[in-house]
Amino acid sequence: MPSDERQDIPRREFVRSAVAIGGTSALSACLETERGRFGEASASTDGAAVDAEPTFPRGDPSAVPDGQHRWGEFLVRDAHGNTVPPQQLVGIGMRYEGSTPPADAEREAVEAALRTLERAFQWGTGGDAGAPFHRGLLFMIGYAPAYFDAVGDVPAGLSTPESVLEAVGEDPAHADEYDAMLILTSDVGSILLAAEEALFGELDELNGLPVESTFEGIFSKAGRHVGYVGKGLPADKLDHEGVPEDAPLSMGYKSGFRDNLPSEDRVTIDEGPMAGGTTIASSTLRIDLDRWYEQGQEERTAEMFCPAHDPDDIGATGDKLGGDSGVTESDVENIDAHAGEYDRVGHTQKVARARDDDFEPRILRRTEGVADTVRDGAGFQFNAIQEAMTDFIETRKTMNVDEYDHDVPAEDHGITDYLETLRRGSYLAPPREKRALPVI
């Protein structure tokens, strides 16, 4: 490993720890650690600015897409054209404490607070097609059925988290109790922490700009979920010798191939009062890495992708696949035949059953990341977007063993037997013009 990469590992570990902890003290430490890479800090823990000059490129709210979820043109891409998610993720579950229905002043305060973020930081890469990392911020806010029910009517297509869990065969006791979810993501840990602190009234300035509006009195924090993704990060942080050194996720394989990600249009609500928005399925899972890595590389590859595929064509971390997962309509049609021949079924092969008539997936992996804050094993934060929650339900059901007639045992049936759901939530992310305390 080159010396500069070795030196960068402690810094990455420290920043991830700071993001996981949160708060102004963590922000101060994170800024100090990142100073050598990104320049001088511009915010301090006492709420005052260190200087008036921005540390990071500022944004232009008028250049941000109408759909909160439309990040595609502002994401880093690899050599194969695959989108590369930002390395750091923070999901903030919130409790609504405002008026019912929301007052105009409250709605204006929320919108002003979110626009402060958009002015303070560029949207992801800022639209730079060749950007090597996300030196800005991407975020979206979604509202739960409980919020809509309290202030008006629940929009069509937004199932309760309890009904989602029941529909996919999981315990409804794991349903989120949040009224809203704010998802923040960036490659820069201090950007996430500063944005979070500013929204909840802990900073007076953000990247050199005054913070004049916050969520105070309208939203309070009810939960916090962090994750990280990127080549080599899981092996650096997780205490598990089975994780490949250069794997981007804890189960060893990269995700986000072009063929298993739908277009943003496909996951956008196309009619009704929330047209232009999307729904969010937010989940925290526990992964049994011990059992997963008790298997050999060939077995893991077959269960992650498709048993009929040659592991040598996939590579140790999926690196040989380039921009395509390799799963075809023929692989889906032959699931039962493959089950009989190989006594295994692949996860990607199974999930492809939920694709539409054009063989396009129905859900888009918007953010994901390893969570080392989950007890008794490795955690995984996963946020998918789709037009309606039924799209998520139908996709998730394809993972279940009882959806199939063959008798392949659960431990050889894709990856579902290695996953345990700790929480799930369902949210609607309105288009930007309606994102501040919407009412149906």
TrEMBL record:
SUPFAM superfamilies recorded: Dimeric alpha+beta barrel (SSF54909)
Signal sequence annotation: none
Region of interest called Disordered, as start-end residue ranges on this chain: 38-64
PROSITE patterns linked to this entry: PROKAR_LIPOPROTEIN, TAT
Pfam families: DUF7405
Record protein name field: Deferrochelatase/peroxidase EfeB
